[in-house]
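Input for the complex:
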Amino acid sequence: MVRASALKPSSKFFLRKHRKWPVSTYNTRWHRIFNQNQAFQSLKKSSPPPENQPHLLLPTLVYSFNTYNVDPTPEAYHFVLKTLTKTSQFDHIAPVLRRLETVEKFDTPEHIFAHLIGFYGRWNRTQDAIDLFYRILRFRCVPSALSLNALLYVLCGSCEGLKLVPEILLRSHVMGIRLEESSFRILIDALCAIGKVGYAIDIMNCMMNNGYGLNVKICSLILSSMCEQKDSEGVDVMEFLGEMQKLGFCPGMMDYSNVIRFMVKQGRGLDALNVVIKMKGEGIKPDVICYTMVLHGVITEGDFKKADQVFDELLVLGLVPDVYTYNVYINGLCKQNKVESGLMMISSMEELGCKPNLITYNILLKALCNNGELRRARELMREMTLNGVGVNLQTHRIMLDGLFGKGDIEEACVFMEEMLDKVLVRFCSSFDEVIYGLCHRGLACKAMELLKKMIDKNVAPGAKAWEALLLSSGSEPSLEETTWTGLVEPMVALP
DNA sequence: AGTCCCTACG
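Predicted:
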């Protein structure tokens, strides 16, 4: 039999015109593809329900293609494997792979393995994923970063998996896989997520040594991870930033915000201020959030002169302070004992169209209480309610601490009872203070009454309350044994 | 994304 395709194009044309015998239709390429399509359609139609008869999927594949007298296609195998993975039929995947490896001759497309590796990963079958990755070459497939990345995703999902990464990378090298930027990215993401920023930096350096340029997103990610670390020094962060800038990294607003937040949390408000100066030098206008954080940092450091400068500067830059900015500023005024100025800010804010919120009032209430101006504190609390600003547990705690601190234990008791009736609270250290105070004034009976009420309302007394009551029980004849057992029993059930 | 309070035990 002469195959038309084996002949030169010119003679092919000659034969078509003058041939004496028909070319076998079954040997033409298009017919083979047609039959393979038919077989694939028949496989899809006659596929047994995988939930009940997964073992019949492979025989159906073989049968369908045999019927059409063609070899099975990679797509048909992918269909069978996808059907099995959709229904989590682990045990029936192995025979399909075995046949794909030993019987079939075609080059298996890599995406089939990437899909399977991901599937094993989702079901925590890390070892299956690794085994398949190592086997890929036996399927006449040249693996690339596609399958490697699929495996890296799986391994990066757990700490145990992450430990296997170095071995996999060495093996990938032997398998001829070239690491892509995406592969590095997966590793850096994973390391940052578990707080191993130092290793993430190593990987980034390794990436750049491999000829990849500086990646802005990776830089930002590492910087933000450094800023989330509790133990990293501010110097480290600035050092890293400087190094990256030398390599061409241009930090954006978000990067600088992260650095400023980090500095302020470390109590380095003046360093944070320097970051703002650096931003301006680079032509980036810090936003009101950056300024609010810096203002907060500078006030925490007690540099109120700088704080005023910072506030003026943001106004000069045309930024509009919002309630966060005002709250920070008012807090600064209160720390300088300028409570009157702080109270005046409330009306200024309202004139400027910025409504004071719960936090604004809490700051001022605390300042008034600290100054012993409890009557004005009560007035302000009333005022805030009138202005439609609700109170919260903090507000009550501030008031209770104020009443107690002023030495008005009677009023503190009344207030505490009100709180227990009105406020949803599980624990409040101020309650302990009241009980402690009562015991030390020889008022253990009142203390006991409040303690009972706390337990009644499901509020847990702290160690300080229990200790005070136990110590005063000796000198207080009215506390009987039954009272104690009656109290201790429900206490056991407390959260 | 940033403000008040501080979320107690080893």
